[in-house]
Design a protein that fits this description.
Distance between the termini: 39 Å
Strand content: 5-15%
CATH architecture of the largest domain: 3-Layer(aba) Sandwich
CATH topology of the largest domain: Rossmann fold
Strand order of the largest sheet: 2-3-4-1-5
CATH class of the largest domain: Alpha Beta
Helix content: 55-70%
Shape: globular
Number of strands: 8
Order of helices and strands: HEHEHHHEHEHHEHHHHHHEHHEEH
Largest sheet: 5 strands, parallel
Radius of gyration: 23 Å
Number of domains: 3
Length: 393
């Protein structure tokens, strides 16, 4: 069928044509933001889950909903190797300037901008990647000590006062939060905690891999009481069916029952893979209804595309030792697996491969769902590794 009219949208954070099965978590975020805007308490939200379940899509939709409410927002992604101050400063400046334009001269938004100026000046000394050059002025003694935790508290309090003055909420939307270093995570949690204690409307909706909950608890023991952690999993079968069928139905295209069952089997309900298989099934089929034979052909092209991009880019970041560790995991199946079994597959003891395992966790390739267990953060990655393993070896 015509690829120009293909309704499916696979991509990193691309909004699917049918956001099925996520109404409850979207409503939870909406209620939290509404409560904060009205001066009531609400906890920050954390979306945790594997790659491909749709965390970024949800984060983007929640941000769009917040913007539609007229709230002040900051949206950023925390990549590896960047400091939190370097990421936060330019985005927070934009949000505060919007608040300042809504307020009268001399407002608390102007004071918050000066606090941000002091924060940036102090952080430039400690973090080399803070390269902010706009002069915002400073407020002597506010957020300018050079200590991240102390200054972030002062900055967030100034931001919260400005948001409260405007009867709005400053909402931070942060993706890939697991890459924030522990000391910086601790400072961020402490600053949000102080705002909560003062009932200031500053909140964060974050997204990250499954290890994020443990990382936040390690950074600050009270994190589990400060945040609501929401596991985002693959779609239940009725929702997975809707994600595939609804966009096609709107275009007058249908699937026969065997074709749909095969897509659900191949994708295991993961939101990203549903979009990939839907795209390839559409492009493969000559006419409606889409058949199982069409889906079988689509599976070949979908896997080839995933192997060349989605899976491969993650392997290209790894050292030979890290790749060998993942190959040993893949030979054991999808997982999770005991660390001892993986080490045995490498003919090593657990202690000797522990640094490799720790490095893979830092890179977001694996996580520990329970003590001593190891699992892939990328669904279907074990099958990919088994496909490429003979050539790699």
């Amino acid at each position: 069928m015509n690829p120009r009219t293909n309704p499916y949208a696979p991509g990193a954070g691309s909004s699917p044509p049918e956001l099925a099965g996520r109404a409850q978590i979207l409503e939870t975020a909406s209620i939290a933001l509404d409560r904060m805007r009205d001066g009531l308490h609400a906890r920050s939200l954390m979306l945790i889950g594997l790659r491909g379940v749709g965390k970024t899509v949800l984060l983007n939709r929640m941000h769009q909903d917040a913007e539609a409410k007229g709230l002040a927002t900051v949206v950023l992604e925390a990549p590896e190797g960047r400091s939190l101050p370097a990421l936060l400063a330019p985005h927070l400046r934009v949000a505060l300037l919007k608040l300042d334009r809504m307020a009268a001269a001399g407002s608390l938004a102007t004071r918050a901008l000066r606090a941000l100026g002091g924060f940036i000046a102090g952080m430039k000394v400690k973090y080399e990647d803070v390269e902010f050059s706009v002069d915002l002025g400073t407020e002597p003694g506010v957020a300018d000590s050079g200590d991240l935790e102390t200054d972030l508290i002062s900055l967030f309090e100034a931001v919260g006062d400005a948001a409260k003055e405007r009867r709005t909420v400053m909402a931070l939307f942060v993706d890939e939060l697991q890459y924030v270093p522990e000391d910086q995570m601790a400072a961020l949690i402490t600053a949000l905690h102080r705002c909560g204690q003062r009932n200031l409307p500053v909140t964060m909706i974050g997204a990250g891999l499954p290890q994020l909950a443990g990382q936040m608890g390690k950074a600050k023991s009270y994190a589990e009481r400060l945040f609501e952690f929401h596991p985002i999993r693959q779609l239940a079968e009725p929702d997975a069916r809707q994600a595939i069928v609804a966009p096609a139905d709107r275009a007058g295209v249908h699937y026969d029952s065997e074709a749909l069952a095969e897509i659900l089997r191949q994708t295991e309900g993961y939101a990203y893979f549903l979009q990939e298989w839907g795209k390839h099934a559409w492009n493969t089929a000559a006419t409606t209804p889409i058949t199982k034979a069409d889906v079988d052909s689509a599976t070949v092209s979908a896997l080839a595309e995933l192997d060349g991009s989605f899976f491969r880019v993650r392997m290209d970041r790894l050292t030979p030792a890290e790749k060998r560790y993942l190959y040993a995991m893949a030979e054991l199946g999808p997982g999770p697996h005991r660390s001892g079994d993986i080490a045995a597959g490498l003919h090593r003891n657990v202690e000797s491969v522990a640094p490799v395992r720790a490095s893979l966790i830092r890179k977001g390739m694996i996580y520990s769902p329970a003590h001593g267990d190891t699992a892939f953060t990328v669904p279907l990655f074990d099958a990919y590794l088994r496909r490429v393993m003979p050539a790699a070896r």
